[in-house]
Design brief:
The complex is a heterodimer.
Chain A lengths: L32 H8 L3 H18 L2 E4 L6 E4 L2 E9 H25 L4 H4 L5 H5 L21 E8 L6 E7 L6 H14 L1 H6 L8 H11 L10 E4 L8 H11 L2 E3 L4 E4 L2 E6 L2 E4 L2 E4 L3 H4 L15 H6 L4 E3 L16 H9 L6 E2 L3 E2 L3 H9 L4 E5 L8 E3 L5 H13 L4 E5 L5 E6 L4 E10 L1 E4 L4 E3 L4 E5 L13 E9 L4
Parallel strand pairs in A: 3-23, 5-13, 6-7, 6-11, 11-12
Antiparallel strand pairs in A: 1-2, 4-5, 4-20, 8-9, 9-10, 14-17, 15-16, 15-17, 18-19, 19-22, 20-21, 22-23
Helix pairs in contact in A: 2-6, 3-12
Chain B lengths: L2 H32 L6 H12 L2 H7 L5 H10 L7 H14 L6 H15 L3 H7 L2 H21 L4 H34 L6 H10 L3 H8 L5 H10 L7 H16 L9 H15 L2 H7 L1 H24 L6
Helix pairs in contact in B: 1-2, 1-4, 1-5, 1-8, 1-9, 1-10, 2-9, 4-7, 5-6, 6-8, 9-12, 9-13, 9-16, 13-14, 14-16
The chains are: A alpha+beta, B mainly alpha.
Chain lengths: 489, 318
Amino acid sequence: MCLSDRGLFSGYTAGPFYDEMFSAQGCARSHYARLFEKLGVMAPTQFEDRRKHADLSFLLQGITFTVYSDGRGTERLFPFDLIPRILPQSEWARIESGLSQRVVALNLFLQDVYGKQLILRDRKIPPSLVYSCRHFRREMIGLEVPHGIYTHVCGIDLVRDSGTGEFLVLEDNVRTPSGISYVLENRLVMTRTFPEAFQEHEVLPVNHYPAELSRILRTLSPRTDPDAQIVLLTPGIHNSAYFEHSFLAQQMGIELVEGRDLIVDGVVVYMKTIYGLKRVDVIYRRVDDDFLDPLCFRSDSMLGVPGLMGAYRAGNVALANTPGNGVADDKAIYAYVPTLIQYYLGEEPILRSVETYLCDRSDHLSHVLSNLPSLVVKSVGESGGYGMLMGPSAAHAEIEAFREKILADPRNFIAQPIVPLSVVPSYDSAAQCLAGRHVDLRPYCLYDGQKVTIVPGGLTRVALEAGSLVVNSSQGGGSKDTWILRGEC
Amino acid sequence: MLSRIADSLFWLARYIGRAEDTARILDVTFHTLLEQAPQPHGVRWEPILSMAGEETLFRQFYTEPTAHNVFEFLAFNPDNPSSIMQCITKARENARTIRDRISREMWEDLNSLYLTLGRFDPQEETAAGPHRFCGRVIFGSHRFHGVSDATLPHDEGWDFLRVGWALERAEMTARLVDVQYRNLLALTSVGSTPDNHQWMAVLKSVGAYEAYHRQYHSPIEPARVAEMLILNPQHPRSIRFCVTEMQTSLRAISNTAAGSYANEAERLTGKVLERLRYSRIDEILDDGLHAYLTGLIHQFNTIGEVIARTYFYYAGVA
């Protein structure tokens, strides 16, 4: 079945990028064939109706995020695109094993860096690079963490390179990755909006995520008490991921707490309830390291709990994710992850990384400086699309300003070639038709020390603006439901 | 239950209650005045402002208490912390901070009320009169009660909501009776027509008009209106009814048997309730209604503070 001027697809052309729905000849790929058939006969007005229905449902549920760029913080809908991103199970299986391998290696790296530091002794990675990571925490050295797990929850960003059609790892997020609530809500809204599509496809379910996370958190409890008290620590209602914090707490049936709800007394953490203080055993914290405990990290933090790290060190409370994880998702360390996989597991990486230039290596730096207009430059400790230079679309002045920044602090920057991201048909509401838009994929990995559990798929983020490669919600990106289809197609 | 969550539930209920009360009073007063001989704006609208307790603030924004100004001030003004829109905004904000603890239905219902009211255009509504807007608020409040009742587990959280609702209502009814009684009797004494319409308006503003007639089968008399709104054991907006609700919920929270009390909030509530149970309206009027109601309002404030101290704040704990 191939593209012709059909309904929503009228005017659609498979462009120069890898189109996940259509082959280069403009024929629907086999795992997309049924959906293409369905959408092809759908009237644009009918599609528009369903789209409005989906938007309304997000609005009524208040599934919004907060943007601060205007200085006030406004609630915005995270745009949802109705055309799902579909992957066959065979392709997913490879991604899944590649992610598991990576998560295990990152966890071993963290154990090592905060433990015996064998990898530094063996000179596989420069010690200065590790110690200069912005999120390296001296406070964590020599501290035994429950079951040796650091990376309880990881969100690893993947992109499909249009050149090869292969999935590459773009970055690791092992501190407090967010977005899983959108995966679950997108699926819910999708099943309500397009129920008939689910009847014709065997889509692997995703809604076991909260139960699995809850199970892992429970195993961390220092007390064997079956009523172990698990809480989710949020910075509060003004945090951009607040919806997710409250969603997860509700789904797991645990208390959602702010720093001011907790108190440390005699190196034990308690929460303030209407019936008095109640002991807390495990904290799934969504507050950054810096703000976790003013006595240990930033002393001006109002979001944290004074004395929390003392209780953690004493083994009276467990934290997930472990403080200090930021050393593993530093964008300069990223370049060494293949080395880590070989060093700790003796395996070749299943998923390749994007070629990366470290600006604090003089040979790399000169290459970067002479090729700025064709590279993407990233600040190593940032996330969420902040502190980035997209060479090809940047103005001359912007590039020059970045050049100054890089020269002033080379360790703080890395550069990568622009990956021509794959596209998925997405609805362009202005033109009222479908057009190819660039996407990435963030699967969520849960690690209990024995095995890595990944809910099938993850969050597909889409750059809704024509030609844009930036998918971050803070930069105008949207999302799609991601379907992993059972069996072969 | 976390103290912060109990606090949020309590205030969530109070904000919604306050929005509903303001909407009721606005709507009824506006429509009653339509059928009356013209009087100076002050005479007509001052009482409403004093009921809301915001006369001073009003003067900062407006010179004349015209229908238009009063409606704009009480319904929409973002600088009036008790305006209906501000109350609903704060209620939603509270609900948002505890949305993991209330039912999905409660959140979605309140969020949709907020979104709906936000689409009303203040200019247009002040020109069209308060009925459409106020109707939405009143109905929204009722619906929220219903949704909460039907979807929230009836545990401590539910009881904190009920205490909030009851306390807010009790206080508002006391203010309403106090202000209207003084105002309407003053009108009588200076010889202007003290027609029944204004007393009817008072009853209607608390939804007690039909109930009054079923109860008394007689023309409207000020003393009976006061009796109905203060001492009636069954009418859901009478002070006695509300205080009974408060007592029931407070006891459920602390798991205390009838006839005893576990904390100061319960003791004070019980004391107020006993007086309401054994008082007659003629005694209250003889002793002075204004002093009686002012005393009640003061005690409601104290009870609110004591509840906060007992359950919400940790003295000496940061």
